[in-house]
Amino acid sequence: MRSATASEPSSICAEAARDAAWYKNEVAAAGALGIRHIDFKMSATRQLSVEESHRLVALLRDAPTPILIHCKSGADRTGLASVLYLNRIAGVDEEIAERQLSIRFGHFSIPFFSPTYAMDENWEKLEKVYGLSG
């Protein structure tokens, strides 16, 4: 893993709210603090395509560190992005990495009941793509 002092920090926003006041304030504050603001549009209720997932992994790999990943609640989209970072970049075992998508971190997901189950389904699909046991 790269050293946190190797570059400026970055903030990856997985929320699509460019017109919202909080978003504009966040971008301004990040700029004032020397934090690179990076957008990656995601929905907590829709799976990423494999190509979008690869783009997210590349973005996470290439972003200046340390990285703050966030979305509206910090549980669903942030959870999936964290799983991808831990497994694909930091080399953390899949069973440990996928714990980021758990109630412990605010991710409440029940098949056919919770629309955010899409994040779990997304990871299950990617486990196959990456040749993991799942």
3D architecture notes:
The protein has 134 residues and is mainly α. The chain has a single domain (10-129), classed as Alpha-Beta Complex (Protein-Tyrosine Phosphatase, Chain A). 41% of the residues lie in helices and 9% in strands. It has helices at 21-32, 50-62, 77-89, 94-97, 117-129; strands at residues 10-13, 36-39, 67-70. It has a three-stranded parallel beta sheet with strand order 2-1-3, sandwiched between helices.
Task: State the gist of this model.
The chain is mainly alpha-helical. Helix content is 41%, strand content 9%.
For the structure shown, list the relevant keywords.
134 residues, Protein-Tyrosine Phosphatase, Chain A, three-stranded parallel β-sheet, globular
Within CATH, the superfamily carries the name: Protein tyrosine phosphatase superfamily
Calculate Rg over CA atoms: 15 Å
Q: Kindly state the percentage of residues in helix.
A: 40-55%
Q: What is the CATH architecture assignment?
A: Alpha-Beta Complex
CATH fold-level name: Protein-Tyrosine Phosphatase, Chain A
Number of domains: 1
